[in-house]
Design a protein that fits this description.
single chain, 616 residues, alpha+beta, Immunoglobulin-like, five-stranded mixed beta sheet, 13 helices, 28% helix, extended
Length: 616
């Protein structure tokens, strides 16, 4: 096999053949190959049956613009595959966003009252902050063409993208018909540039489950220190307000190097809530050590299709220690030059190294500014002048090297390697999830108490609606509520559940430390309470009698209290932590999952065996 660049595919023509002028595309390809913007290592090789080989592709940001190069991957006595290499280099002070020109939404059920949110990402690969804004006139026109129905709406139409980060645009696709929708939406960047993205979406009649494709890297690449057991984690279909956990492993495949890792966890836009959490979030792995990572996915209140890209930064500990040592020596030299000075020695200033804080930046060359051919030495009569030309050039290079040796630049931290973990999930409303996956609902844990507290049982927006409604509106609401309540009360399953509920034990309630005694029945707000000053006018024996009755009632109530079942969220947390601890101990070799179970006899059996021995 071999990767063939355009120069490798060129056929040598005889001298009498006319080649003609080169096109602009061919000149660009020659310039890209002369500057060595794209490199492939190795370029060719031979693979035996069952053998593997890692190939590295790299791009150098030396020429400003979009550079493209066609490369052919050829197998000996086999097929040929065309690969299109593309790289983009922008100026340092120019805003630029990298975005896909075409995006396909997941199919959505026609007539869905709450269609899911779907994500589209913009990446800022430049060095300045970029402002983006979605052209909403196209979306308004699309809504008018579809009977004033919002077929496509953007929840976050504008925002800022920091350098080196991503912006997630949330979209809601709500089709009206069973057809394929194609919408061209422009996105403005700093009011100068424009990106036109074609969004495609299809309306369906029935709900479909998520695909279960999981990519697994079989072997680590050359130079890779940490290795993920899975490249993608598929959460699948889950109901809203639910929590799901997955387990994967992070292994240090190096035999000599220790490594540090740090996970970058994205946050939900507009809130501090993390949809995904990984434990441990950071840590250190010794050579050939493996750690267990627990991924917890918490679905939001609204149906959403999540496509998340989690990044793990991996830094070798030896490179980090070397960086800190070099930085400490550089700072000590800087403090020494600031505090010390020499008067008598005049040659000291010549031998002293110049400290520079900034990192050397090489400005990329604009596309088309390089010459087509390299400059040749001047034509000379003898060979001595040609030799002197190369000798002078070497001396100039040596002079530049000596000047560069006098400059001591500030050490830069080691660049971490990146590991990508894809997380895919699709959250549904509870009714839709029961229709789609009725047999899997019992496997989901919905932590409703963490989402909705006791004070938010009734939304404040709907609380004053009945009292503030006008006459006809109040009658309509009262009639609807009356019909709903009568239907609920006439349901036989509800009546049976109420009978069963009365016989169940009381749910767990944490003790109130602020009160001195337990009051099983709170006072009704309708009954008037006697002011505390009236207790002073009562006779003394009446007060003692009341205190005795209250104390006796409290003792009876406390004696009736029995241990009851803990809440579901507490049981979930305890069991989950127990299983995770067992897996962690098994990974570290402290617990053998395949060992024969150890049977411990009860204490009564041990006592029965001890009595005959005492008699003997």
């Amino acid at each position: 096999w071999a990767f063939l660049f355009p120069k490798d595919q060129r056929t040598e023509l005889p001298g009498w053949a006319e080649t003609g002028e080169l096109s602009s595309t061919e000149l660009d390809h020659m310039q890209i190959q002369d500057c060595k913007l794209f490199t492939v290592a190795p370029r060719s090789g031979t693979l035996l049956p069952g053998q593997k080989r890692a190939v590295q592709f790299s791009y150098s940001h030396n020429v400003i613009g979009t550079n493209r190069l066609p490369v052919v991957f050829k197998l000996s006595y086999g097929r040929e595959t065309l690969l299109n290499f593309q790289g983009v280099t922008v100026e340092q002070d120019k805003p630029h966003l990298f975005a896909s020109n075409q995006h396909a939404f997941a199919p959505v059920d026609v007539g869905d009252c709450r269609p899911p949110r779907q994500m589209y990402e913009l990446y800022n690969g430049g060095a300045v902050q970029v402002h983006y804004e979605v052209d909403r006139t196209v979306l308004s026109q699309l809504q008018m063409d579809n009977f004033n129905h919002p077929v496509l709406s953007c929840i976050s139409p504008q925002g800022e993208v920091l350098p080196g980060e991503k912006a997630t645009l949330e979209w809601i696709f709500s089709p009206l018909e069973l057809k394929l929708y194609q919408m061209d939406v422009p996105i403005h960047i700093h009011e100068n540039d424009l990106i036109t993205v074609r969004f495609e979406g299809c309306g369906t009649k029935t709900l479909t489950q998520s695909s279960s494709d999981v990519r697994i890297q079989s072997e680590p690449f050359p130079g890779q220190v940490l290795f993920l057991s899975e490249d993608s984690v598929l959460i699948g279909d889950v109901p809203v307000r639910s929590q799901t956990t997955r387990v994967f492993f992070l292994t240090n495949v190096s035999h000599t190097e220790s490594a540090l890792f740090l996970w970058e966890i994205p946050r939900q836009k507009g809130s501090d809530q993390k949809v995904v959490q990984i434990h441990p979030e950071r840590g250190r792995l010794r050579p050939e050590e493996c750690t267990l990572c627990v991924l917890t996915f918490s679905s939001t209140d609204y149906p959403t299709i999540h496509q998340l890209d989690l990044i793990c930064q991996v830094t070798q500990e030896a490179a980090l220690v070397q960086y800190h040592d070099e930085l400490q020596r550089w700072e000590e030299e800087k403090r020494r030059q600031e505090n010390e000075f020499i008067i008598t020695d005049k040659s000291a200033s010549k031998n002293q190294r110049v400290l520079v804080d900034e990192k050397p930046q090489t400005s990329p060359v604009k596309k088309g500014s390089l010459s087509k051919y390299k400059v040749l030495p001047p034509i000379a009569a003898g060979s001595e002048e040609t030799v002197s030309f190369y000798t002078n050039q070497t001396r100039a290079e040596r002079r530049l090297q000596r000047e560069a040796a006098k400059i001591w630049r500030c050490p830069q931290p080691p660049r971490p390697a990146l590991l990508h973990l894809r997380v895919a999930a699709h959250s549904f409303e509870l009714q839709d999830y029961l229709k789609l996956c009725p047999d899997e609902y019992h496997t989901c844990f919905r932590n409703i108490q963490a989402k909705i507290g006791p004070t938010s049982a009734v939304p404040p927006l709907f609380a004053p609606s009945l009292s503030s409604a006008p006459g006809p509106g109040k009658d309509i609401v009262a009639q609807i509520l009356t019909c709903m309540i009568s239907d609920i009360l006439s349901d036989p399953e509800l009546a049976q559940s109420l009978v069963t509920l009365s016989s169940k034990p009381r749910p767990y309630q944490p003790a109130d430390t602020s009160s001195t005694h337990f009051s099983p029945v709170p006072p009704s707000p309708c009954t008037p309470t006697r002011p505390p000053s009236t207790s002073v006018t009562l006779p003394q024996h009446h007060r003692l009698l009341n205190e005795a009755v209250a104390k006796e009632g409290t003792e009876k109530t406390q004696n009736k209290l029995q241990p009851v079942l803990a809440p579901a969220y507490m049981c979930e947390a305890v069991l989950l932590n127990t299983l995770q601890n067992l897996l962690t101990e098994a990974v570290k070799g402290q617990f053998d999952l395949t060992a024969h179970p150890c049977i411990i006899p009860p204490s009564s059996y041990l006592r029965s065996r001890a009595k005959p021995e005492e008699d003997q």
